[in-house]
Design goal:
With 497 residues, the chain is mainly α. The protein has 23 helices and two strands. The chain has a two-stranded antiparallel sheet with strand order 1-2. Helix 1 crosses helix 22, helix 11 runs antiparallel to helix 12 and helix 21 packs across helix 22.
Length: 497
C-alpha cells in the first residue's frame, strides 16, 4: 500500500540523488586510483573496518602490499639547476624537480663534500647549513657568505655554479675557478697521506670534489659542442679513478661518443662495462641494442616486419641478434620505447633515477633519442619488435627471462622522483579494482534509471513496482511457510522465557 502511494516525482528525486552520489564516488575512486594505484574503499575496508569487526588481515597479503624501499641512483647526466631546470620553471611555472629529489641531492652533497676535518672551519660549517637549506635563495646567500670567509671554498663555488649561473658558459667559468682550488687541495692531502698523516677523510672529500668538478666541466664541454674535449675529460677520469665506478662516468662517455658517431669506441666501452658482474642500466642495454640495430636495420627495414611480431624467417644470425638485443633492453626497462617512439611526452630528467623505472627511461630518452634518430631504420626496428618481449615474460613480477623479476617498488619510488604534472608510466598494467568497476556500473545504472523516470514516469514506476513485487515474492513465500509451521503464539512464549 505504501509503494502504491508514492508519486513519480519521488522516484525521480530518488534516482537523481542516487546517480549523483554514485557519480561523486566514482570520480573520487578514479582520482585516488590514478594517484595511489589502489582503491580507496578497499584500503578503508582492509585497514579500518576489518579490525573493528574482528577480521584479521592475512599477514602475507599485507607484506605483499607494503612497498619495499628501492635504491635510487644519481643521474649521471643530470642538468644544471640554474641554467636549465630554473629556466623551465620561469617559462612554464612548473617545477621540474620534486622536493624528494632535491632532498636526495642535498644528502649526496653532504656525504661527498663534508668531512670531520671541517669542524672549526667557519666557511665549511656555513656550507653544511647551505646544503641542508630548502630555500634556494638562502642557499646562494650562504654560499656567498662562505666565500667571504674563504675565497677558495670549493663547495661554495660548486653551489653557485649549479644554482646561480644562468648559462652553461657561466657554469663552466665557475667550475674552472673551483678546479684550481680543488686540484691544489687534492695534491696537498695526497702528499700528507703519503707522509703517513691520518687524513683519510679529508683526502676522500677532496677526491670527491675533484671528480665532481671535472665531470661537470666535461658535461659543460659536451653542451657547448666541444665533444672531443668532453670525451678526453671522461676518459681521463676513468683512467685516473678506476675505482669510482659508482659515479657511472662511462655513461657520460658513451653519450659523447655516440654524438661523435665513434661507434667502434662505444662498442669498446660496452665490452668493458656490459658485464654480468656489473649492475646494468638502460644506457648499457639500449646502446648495445642500438649498435646491433645499426648493423642490420637497413635490411630489416626492407622486409617491413609487422609491429609486435617480427617474422624471423629468412633472418641472419646478426639480425636475430639485433632483435634479441632489443628484447633484452625492453625487459630491463620496458618504459623506454614509448619515449623513443615519441608516443609519450618527454619531460626534463630528474637528478636521481630508479633503475628499470620510468625516471631512468626519461633520463635515457632525453639524451639518447637523437642518437636513435640518426641511425636509419633503428626506430622502425624497435617499433616492430619491442612488444614481442612481453611474450617472453608473461609474469614479469614473478619470473624474468634474462634479468631478475621486475621490481614491484618502482611505481611508488618514481611517483616521488617525478613531478606531479607528468603522467607516470606503470608496468605491468594493473587491472582496475573491483570497487571502481562496481561504482562505475552503479553510476551508469542510476543515470539510465533517472533518464527513464524523467521521460516515462508512469511506465517506469509501474515496472519498478512489478520488479519489487517479483523480488519480494520469495521472501513472502518463506514467511507464509514459517507462519504455517510455527505456532501462532510463538512470540508470546519466547517473551515469557
Amino acid at each position: 500500500m505504501y509503494l502504491n502511494g508514492l508519486s513519480p516525482k519521488f522516484y525521480m528525486a530518488l534516482t537523481a540523488t542516487s546517480s549523483l552520489i554514485s557519480g561523486l564516488i566514482l570520480v573520487f575512486e578514479w582520482y585516488y586510483f590514478k594517484k595511489n594505484g589502489s582503491s580507496f574503499i578497499e584500503q578503508v575496508s582492509l585497514n579500518h573496518i576489518s579490525p573493528l569487526i574482528g577480521v584479521e588481515s592475512d599477514p602475507n597479503s599485507s607484506s605483499q602490499n607494503s612497498v619495499p624501499e628501492c635504491k635510487v641512483w644519481k643521474n649521471p647526466l643530470s642538468l644544471f639547476r640554474g641554467a636549465e631546470y630554473q629556466r623551465l620553471c620561469e617559462e612554464t611555472g612548473k617545477e621540474a624537480l620534486t622536493y624528494y629529489d632535491m632532498n636526495l641531492s642535498a644528502q649526496d652533497h653532504q656525504t661527498l663534500f663534508i668531512c670531520d676535518d671541517d669542524i672549526g672551519k667557519p666557511e665549511y660549517e656555513i656550507m653544511q647549513r647551505a646544503w641542508r637549506e630548502r630555500n634556494p635563495d638562502t642557499r646562494k646567500n650562504l654560499a656567498h657568505e662562505a666565500l667571504e670567509k674563504n675565497a677558495e671554498c670549493v663547495p661554495a663555488l660548486i653551489l653557485l655554479a649549479e644554482e646561480q649561473s644562468r648559462s652553461v658558459v657561466e657554469v663552466e667559468d665557475l667550475f674552472k675557478q673551483a678546479l684550481k682550488y680543488a686540484d691544489v687541495a687534492y695534491k696537498k692531502s695526497q702528499q700528507a697521506l703519503e707522509m703517513g698523516h691520518n687524513v683519510d677523510g679529508l683526502h676522500k672529500r677532496n677526491t670527491n670534489l675533484l671528480i665532481y668538478i671535472k665531470r661537470r666541466l666535461g658535461m659543460c664541454a659536451r653542451k657547448l659542442g666541444k665533444l672531443k674535449e668532453a670525451a678526453k675529460v671522461f676518459r681521463d677520469l676513468m683512467k685516473e679513478f678506476p675505482m669510482m665506478s659508482v659515479f657511472n662516468i662511462h655513461e657520460n662517455l658513451i653519450e659523447v661518443l655516440l654524438e661523435l658517431q665513434s661507434y667502434a669506441d662505444v662498442q669498446a666501452v660496452l665490452a668493458k662495462y656490459d658485464d654480468i658482474s656489473l649492475p646494468k642500466s638502460a644506457t648499457i642495454c639500449y646502446t648495445a641494442a642500438l649498435l646491433k640495430a645499426r648493423a642490420v636495420s637497413e635490411r630489416l627495414q626492407e622486409q617491413q616486419l609487422p609491429p609486435g611480431a617480427p617474422n624471423k624467417r629468412n633472418l641472419s644470425a646478426a639480425e636475430l641478434g639485433a632483435i634479441d638485443a632489443i628484447h633484452r633492453a625492453v625487459e630491463f626497462n620496458p618504459h623506454v620505447p614509448k619515449y623513443l617512439l615519441e608516443t609519450k611526452a618527454l619531460i626534463l630528467p630528474p637528478e636521481h633515477i630508479l633503475k628499470r623505472g620510468d625516471s631512468e627511461a626519461i633520463a635515457y630518452a632525453y639524451f639518447h633519442l637523437r642518437h636513435w634518430k640518426r641511425v636509419d631504420g633503428a626506430l622502425e626496428l624497435l617499433q616492430s619488435s619491442w612488444e614481442g618481449t612481453f611474450r617472453l615474460i608473461p609474469y614479469p613480477l614473478e619470473k624474468g627471462h634474462l634479468f631478475y623479476p621486475y621490481p614491484q617498488c618502482t611505481e611508488a619510488a618514481d611517483r616521488e622522483l617525478l613531478p606531479s604534472f607528468h603522467e607516470l608510466s606503470v608496468y605491468p598494467k594493473r587491472e582496475l579494482p573491483f570497487f571502481l568497476l562496481f561504482t562505475a556500473g552503479l553510476c551508469t545504472f542510476m543515470a539510465v534509471l533517472t533518464f527513464l523516470v524523467h521521460q516515462y514516469p508512469e511506465s517506469t514506476a509501474l515496472v519498478a513496482k512489478m520488479a519489487i513485487q517479483w523480488i519480494s515474492l520469495p521472501f513472502s513465500y518463506l514467511l507464509d511457510k514459517l507462519e504455517a509451521l510455527l505456532p501462532s503464539n510463538l512470540l508470546q512464549q519466547l517473551t515469557k522465557i
